[in-house]
């Protein structure tokens, strides 16, 4: 049995009838009917089911977007974006979401900065060196394990590690002498783990798609492996790295568990000590995800309106990162290699 | 005869041609000394070398740059070598074409000349390759590959600008990065030699991958010429190109010939005829016949060669 072609596109020849009537909707419908008559019932049911599921998913996505748009725009104001949150149950006095927005940005930057070199380095090693073979395979499966771990598991593991006295420099030591273990740095370190798999995979796939003769062309000019990687391979895989990075950033921005467990989810960004940047990194804070959680009816339920506004902003950030993915993934023809 | 003994050679007894089967590598008796090439004294021992090979080998053709001596290449556990005890000279100012059916070992032979074959896991080499009197095993790898540079079957410019493609070849390892202005004269020279300068000089910062296939291949030739090689290896350089680009590159090969030695692999017999001074015909890893182009095509001496160049092969 031959696979039926989708009925949405009437089989060729439409251009042959040059008259405007031949291509009209009525004519198309007639052709569609004629074609469907030749189909098996099972195929018809299958195609119909595919259409229903497809349209259903579109409806779900559109409702999420629409609902968030309506709710978000209703409560969103410039004021909300630029004022700090206040610890108050009174909604008129509980302030804005400036700190959670900044917290999300810091979190994404810290997590990405840690993940990027590790993931790209690991991909380069696995593809370009990869010896001993078993070690390369192990690295790949370990990264798969990380990719499959729920972030709450990663979070409590991180807490166990960063509360060790050895790790006190990454957060701070409380009065009683216990290491707090929660800070932008410790959360960022664990966040990097959820970004590494997508960066690693995208980089590895891009490296694997580079034809071997391109590497050899570099070696044939008397170049070393290292300068081949630096000057030929890395520029070639830049779009792949960018795609993976934007994906990883989206995951970091959207994660809640690690924030709640490892960032302290304090209402405001609370720097530790006097050093400006370092103080922020080793201090606590919150992000849009933890803000939404804490203010939504599901959490403390303090300020559902503001939760909607924050959720809307978060959605915008993640959608922007997704748009970045497709821009980065659109191959620059000038960099696209022949196979 | 002043040929130095090497371990990998056949034992003394088998040096005669009789033990090698019907088609012994024809020129293996040529002396390995550094003086202008001397052809072995007994013509009877070189049955398949065309009589006029003496002419081809005389210093008029240029001195010997590269000598392939009893070269065998094995892949993995394959019992039969991909290249079987091949001996060939390459002279300055000549174009040597390697022809033969697909899989006969042409690429393998070419890739061993700049030791690129060592990148292939499991490939083993026997025999010697001598560049200007020095065994290439004794040369530093990066140095060797700049003296014997290579153009590939697929045009493969790097994903950077036209300028950087050539400049990348010029920047030597671990040196202070020369500035663009310092490099420009050499980049221009290389692009001119490859016949590409007039087409690209207005915008050297264009991405190389925007060039047409033929231009890309000439850029790859420019890149290979930029390192001022003594020998240029070309592995079917026109097989991915249209006829016009092919003509341009053949013309280029013609012009470059006076300055360096070129070894070109081609499956296109007409092309071998057009560009080559000498032709080596390989079959299943063996060198069947070697001689001046005219001789080999007009009066092939081996039956296999006759069949192949007559188009009735296989
Ligand atoms: N990487 C490799 N591993 C194993 N065998 C190889 C490899 N490359 C080539 N061969 C074998 O060596 C022989 C010669 O190949 P090649 O030199 O590519 O021939 P040609 O260039 O004349 O078509 C062929 O039989 C091929 O199957
Ligand atoms: Mg080949």
Automatic annotation (TrEMBL), chain A:
<keyword id="KW-0813">Transport</keyword>
<feature type="transmembrane region" description="Helical">
    <location>
        <begin position="307"/>
        <end position="329"/>
    </location>
</feature>
<dbReference type="GO" id="GO:0055085">
    <property type="term" value="P:transmembrane transport"/>
</dbReference>
<feature type="transmembrane region" description="Helical">
    <location>
        <begin position="179"/>
        <end position="200"/>
    </location>
</feature>
<feature type="transmembrane region" description="Helical">
    <location>
        <begin position="44"/>
        <end position="70"/>
    </location>
</feature>
<dbReference type="GO" id="GO:0005886">
    <property type="term" value="C:plasma membrane"/>
</dbReference>
<feature type="compositionally biased region" description="Gly residues">
    <location>
        <begin position="12"/>
        <end position="22"/>
    </location>
</feature>
<dbReference type="InterPro" id="IPR000515">
    <property type="entry name" value="MetI-like"/>
</dbReference>
<feature type="domain" description="ABC transmembrane type-1">
    <location>
        <begin position="101"/>
        <end position="325"/>
    </location>
</feature>
<dbReference type="InterPro" id="IPR035906">
    <property type="entry name" value="MetI-like_sf"/>
</dbReference>
<comment type="similarity">
    <text>Belongs to the binding-protein-dependent transport system permease family.</text>
</comment>
<keyword id="KW-1133">Transmembrane helix</keyword>
<keyword id="KW-0812">Transmembrane</keyword>
<dbReference type="Pfam" id="PF00528">
    <property type="entry name" value="BPD_transp_1"/>
</dbReference>
<keyword id="KW-0472">Membrane</keyword>
<feature type="transmembrane region" description="Helical">
    <location>
        <begin position="101"/>
        <end position="125"/>
    </location>
</feature>
<feature type="transmembrane region" description="Helical">
    <location>
        <begin position="145"/>
        <end position="167"/>
    </location>
</feature>
<protein>
    <submittedName>
        <fullName>Phosphate transport system permease protein PstA (TC 3.A.1.7.1)</fullName>
    </submittedName>
</protein>
<feature type="region of interest" description="Disordered">
    <location>
        <begin position="1"/>
        <end position="25"/>
    </location>
</feature>
From TrEMBL, chain B:
<dbReference type="GO" id="GO:0016887">
    <property type="term" value="F:ATP hydrolysis activity"/>
</dbReference>
<dbReference type="Pfam" id="PF00005">
    <property type="entry name" value="ABC_tran"/>
</dbReference>
<feature type="domain" description="ABC transporter">
    <location>
        <begin position="66"/>
        <end position="309"/>
    </location>
</feature>
<keyword id="KW-1278">Translocase</keyword>
<protein>
    <submittedName>
        <fullName>Phosphate transport ATP-binding protein PstB (TC 3.A.1.7.1)</fullName>
    </submittedName>
</protein>
<dbReference type="GO" id="GO:0005315">
    <property type="term" value="F:phosphate transmembrane transporter activity"/>
</dbReference>
<dbReference type="GO" id="GO:0035435">
    <property type="term" value="P:phosphate ion transmembrane transport"/>
</dbReference>
<dbReference type="InterPro" id="IPR017871">
    <property type="entry name" value="ABC_transporter-like_CS"/>
</dbReference>
<feature type="compositionally biased region" description="Basic and acidic residues">
    <location>
        <begin position="1"/>
        <end position="12"/>
    </location>
</feature>
<dbReference type="InterPro" id="IPR027417">
    <property type="entry name" value="P-loop_NTPase"/>
</dbReference>
<keyword id="KW-0547">Nucleotide-binding</keyword>
<dbReference type="InterPro" id="IPR003593">
    <property type="entry name" value="AAA+_ATPase"/>
</dbReference>
<keyword id="KW-0813">Transport</keyword>
<keyword id="KW-0067">ATP-binding</keyword>
<dbReference type="InterPro" id="IPR003439">
    <property type="entry name" value="ABC_transporter-like_ATP-bd"/>
</dbReference>
<feature type="region of interest" description="Disordered">
    <location>
        <begin position="1"/>
        <end position="45"/>
    </location>
</feature>
<dbReference type="InterPro" id="IPR005670">
    <property type="entry name" value="PstB-like"/>
</dbReference>
<dbReference type="GO" id="GO:0005524">
    <property type="term" value="F:ATP binding"/>
</dbReference>
<dbReference type="GO" id="GO:0016020">
    <property type="term" value="C:membrane"/>
</dbReference>
